Amino acid sequence: MLTCREFADFLRAYLEADLPGDQREAFDEHVRICPPCVNYLDTYKETVRLGRCICEDGDGPPPVDAPEDLIRAILAARGPQGPG
Questions:
Q1: Model confidence pLDDT, tens digit, residues 29-78
Q2: Residue 84 pLDDT > 60, yes or no?
């Protein structure tokens, strides 16, 4: 049985379809029985989606549903000069 910590460790590989079959089955089983990890997975997917939207048009406005904390973190990572 996969633990919540292992779930978090395998999350990226899971979403990129890079987990071997037995690990993917364990991951899927954990998702079926652990609501907090389902929430974590959904939040992670949404963060990735919003990050991609913002990066697609770096000079355009952010999506209206983008969390302010995410926008601030991206702007801070860009630095004071903005995109290259």
A1: 999 999 999 999 999 998 888 777 766 666 677 778 888 888 888 788 87
A2: no
Look up the domain containing 25 and give its range.
1-33
Largest CA distance in the chain: 48
Tokens standing for residue 73: 């973190």
Residues 13, 47 within the same domain: no
| Angle of the 35-56 helix axis to the 4-15 helix axis, nearest 10 | 40
The Cα-based distances of 84 to 17, 18, 29, 39, 67 in angstroms read: 32, 32, 44, 35, 24
